[in-house]
Amino acid sequence: MSRLNEVPLLPSERVDDLLTHNLHIIQSDEVFSFSMDAVLLARFASVPPRGRLLDLCTGNGVIPLLLTTRTAAVIEGIEIQPRLADMARRSVAMNALQERITIHEGDLRTLHLTAGYGVYDVITVNPPYMPLNGSDLKLNTHQAMARHEIGCTLEEVIQACVRLVRTGGKVSMVHRPQRLADIISLMRQYRLEPKSIRFVHPRAHLEANMVLIEAARDGKPEVRVQPPLIVYTEDNEYCPEILDIYYGSKEVKP
């Protein structure tokens, strides 16, 4: 049962409805709020009924919260920013999910030193999309780290994944299509074999602005490109599949 009134909030914080399974999350305009890419990743990733799952760059914990609707597995998240890690822990407590979700505050690049190698069945990650450039200086620290590769690069994220996931385990990522060549190249370099790709288009006639990709550690070469996922109809309304995903009744099949 949700305990919305028992978790303290900072003055700038609010509680948002995740629109599924009576889940709620703490957010603030002072930090980077989750967006559609996190929701799509939580529905796209292959998850076992039980096991051990890890969400890298977990932010305020939205992906671990959503994953509880799909599996009884133990779920962990790691976040380098103390403010966001604290928000994630309070959101977990607010939803009475402390026995299902553990949030670590720390650096994904060194997590293997304490967690061990190859200990997770599934890893999800919604990493910073943009390489460092001058524009990151215009944002506050929380927003800059969420958007730009300040705390970790794409290569470091993939290195962390291969250290932490077991042989045959799955790694699912959401990113920008412009980085797809880099993602596939780095995954193969570090023994993660891409198995499934799905492009997300804002509208049917527009180019993709997100890509979902799932890889298997030490898998055999074989990748399948899934049908495109369209977000909006021509009437500027969510497509039926997006509505199903948001309300938790549909998964983005890998």
Description:
This is tRNA1(Val) A37 N6-methylase TrmN6. The protein has 8 helices and 11 strands. The chain has 254 residues and is an alpha/beta fold. Strands 3, 4, 5, 6, 7, 8, 9, 10 and 11 form a 9-stranded mixed beta sheet that branches. The longest helix has 13 residues, at 82-94.
Short synopsis of the structure:
With 254 residues, the chain is of the alpha/beta class.
Structural class: alpha/beta
Number of helices: 8
Radius of gyration from the alpha-carbon trace, in angstroms:
17 Å
**What order do the helices and strands follow?**
EEHEHEHEHEHHEHEEEEH
The count of β-strands is: 11
The global form is globular
Protein name: tRNA1(Val) A37 N6-methylase TrmN6
Domain Methyltransferase small: 38-145
InterPro entries: SAM-dependent_MTases_sf (IPR029063), Small_mtfrase_dom (IPR007848), tRNA_Adenine-N(6)_MTase (IPR050210)
Organism: Paenibacillus forsythiae
